[in-house]
């Protein structure tokens, strides 16, 4: 029986260890593994090839995805989904494992309903914004990239009398920024989930500067869309020379951490086990240190939430 894997949407660390586990575990289970290159775009254009152990040798240490990824507008048009289906049929593929975000899962859900190709989604995005799972593949590596950058910025910050603003990714979700702020000792953290109060921040910092504070670090989620403005505000209103660092796509790269390699192994094992035991439209989730699958319709109908404990601490960094 043919089973294929693809990486879809924004790439992240952990995808390559997942691809390696997929090929090895499929073979162990007596399945015939296939690799789909370039995500949904490659599925439409038939960039599909059978996989062997040799294809995945040595990839466990690499960031990104050796299969490449894409965001596909074409897949939302019925004629291209038909083309994708014809390609899978021609290869004898009946099952798909998809590493991606909820946009990709939604597309595959439509595909399953139309053509009956069973799929299992694995949450893989640095944003950690998929409903129902505490953890998405790639998050730990991204957090470590931010931690390293922030620690290094702290070295230069503490050698001057300056404020540093660091903008993190995350789209509409403040998880990366908040966890980074809490684990790097930042003084300000602005995320979409929490309101902020510039007047109160100003009073706090002016008092702290009078009391001997020489530098500060602010972490701002891209979803707030305020990092350049905050940098100017620190100079003009708080009276501290300020610099902005936008970490951008550095957060998507890097060799996967041990945690991401291990989670990739577990996510893929559960996904293949679910497919061979008859699950057709599942998404693997991680909750309370356990992994299982739930249906895609549940996953796409909910909204992810950051732990209230983290939010409560984060609130102190907004005022
Ligand atoms: O979803 C992952 C992510 O890295 C977001 O954090 C970011 O907003 C977006 O992708 C960037 O997308 P692109 O690489 O297409 O510019």
From TrEMBL:
The kind of enzyme this is, by top-level EC class, is transferase
Known InterPro entries for this protein?
A: ATP_PFK, ATP_PFK_prok-type, Phosphofructokinase_CS, Phosphofructokinase_dom, PKF_sf
Q: Which cofactor does it need?
A: Mg(2+)
Q: Is Magnesium found in the keyword set?
A: yes
State the species of origin.
Thiopseudomonas acetoxidans
What reaction(s) does this enzyme catalyze? Answer: beta-D-fructose 6-phosphate + ATP = beta-D-fructose 1,6-bisphosphate + ADP + H(+)
| Record-listed E.C. numbers | 2.7.1.11
Q: Which family does it belong to?
A: Belongs to the phosphofructokinase type A (PFKA) family.
Pathway listed for it? Carbohydrate degradation; glycolysis; D-glyceraldehyde 3-phosphate and glycerone phosphate from D-glucose: step 3/4
Cell compartment(s), UniProt? Cytoplasm
Name the keywords, alphabetized: Allosteric enzyme, ATP-binding, Cytoplasm, Glycolysis, Kinase, Magnesium, Metal-binding, Nucleotide-binding, Transferase
Q: Which residues form the Phosphofructokinase domain?
A: 3-274
- The protein's name is 6-phosphofructokinase
Domain of life of the native organism: Bacteria
